[in-house]
From TrEMBL:
This is GDSL-like Lipase/Acylhydrolase. Pfam families: Lipase_GDSL_2. It comes from the Bacteria. It comes from Sporosarcina pasteurii. GO terms for molecular function: phosphatidylcholine lysophospholipase activity. Residues 56-245 form the SGNH hydrolase-type esterase domain. Keywords: Hydrolase.
Length: 271
């Protein structure tokens, strides 16, 4: 009997301790806000692809003067592109031609076949303007006047606008890389001339137009060919030789890097 009493007392105490009021209330679990993953895409640079590169313009892009016959700066730069991140291989098509002026480039861009090629281009390299300047030099050789170069510059700027407009009319995504002008007459002059100042203004016009396009890059080259101390000229003393084109190609690559290739290409290419 005593044993049963002890058992009853034990269970009474146990049950009184289990009374709901003795428990600490556990607050309900808070609802956690729904965190959706933001849309994320693999950057194009991680998926190498074949790219199509077009060369436009004059003899500098054609590679005249390159005794090694590897395509001047254009051939060297397109070869370097094969090492870029995001590039599997490169197909290069050089449509540049010796002596071509800006008005003649416009005529070329009106060609349906050329437009079809431009549509496929991932990158477009071109040089233009040197022959526009030389047209004035040849025409007014014995009566050169500064005003003539600036009158032509005004017309050149309008044609350059048209060139960019025509390219963008068929291809809004390609990278456009434009080379500047240099003064070949610096090899016979030891000091800055009015012609240097004229070319500086022409280069500025080209650079300004390039900057206005958010997928373009300007490449200055005038300092590379100031005098011939480094033996960078071809025997015609007008076009670069192979050494000159190597320096020009290196400048293109440096400038493209400074222009932020990754950003220009929307994350598709990088160095």
């Amino acid at each position: 009997m005593r044993k049963l009493l002890v058992i009853f007392v034990f269970f009474s105490l146990l049950l009184s301790g289990c009374y709901p009021g003795k428990f600490k209330k556990i607050p309900p679990a808070e609802e956690r806000p729904y965190a959706a993953f933001e849309k994320w895409e693999i950057p194009g640079v991680f998926i190498p692809k074949s790219i199509y590169v077009i060369g436009l313009g004059d003899s500098l892009t054609e590679g005249i003067g390159d005794e090694l016959k590897v395509g001047g700066y254009f051939g060297r730069v397109t070869t370097a592109m094969e090492e870029w991140k995001g590039v599997k291989d490169v197909e290069a098509n050089n449509l540049a031609k010796r002596g071509r002026r800006s008005d003649q480039l416009i005529s070329q861009l009106e060609d349906r076949d050329v437009q079809e090629k431009l549509k496929k281009a991932d990158i477009i390299l071109f040089t233009i303007g040197g022959n526009d300047v030389m047209k004035i030099v040849k025409r007014d050789l014995f009566k050169l006047k500064i005003n003539a170069f600036y009158e032509e510059l005004t017309r050149f700027e309008k044609r350059l606008d048209e060139i960019f407009g025509m390219i963008r009319g068929v291809n809004g995504n390609a990278l456009i890389i434009v080379g500047g002008l240099y003064n070949p007459f610096s090899i016979v002059a030891d000091e800055t001339t009015e012609f240097d100042e004229i070319l500086e203004d022409w280069n500025e016009a080209i650079e300004v137009r390039t900057v206005l396009d958010d997928k373009s890059c300007f490449v200055p080259v005038s300092d590379l060919f100031y005098s011939n101390e480094n033996m960078v000229y071809h025997t015609d003393f007008f076009h670069p030789n192979a050494k000159g084109y190597v320096q020009m190609a290196n400048r293109y690559i440096e400038s493209i890097d400074k222009c932020n290739l990754f950003k220009l290409s929307d994350g598709n290419f990088d160095m």
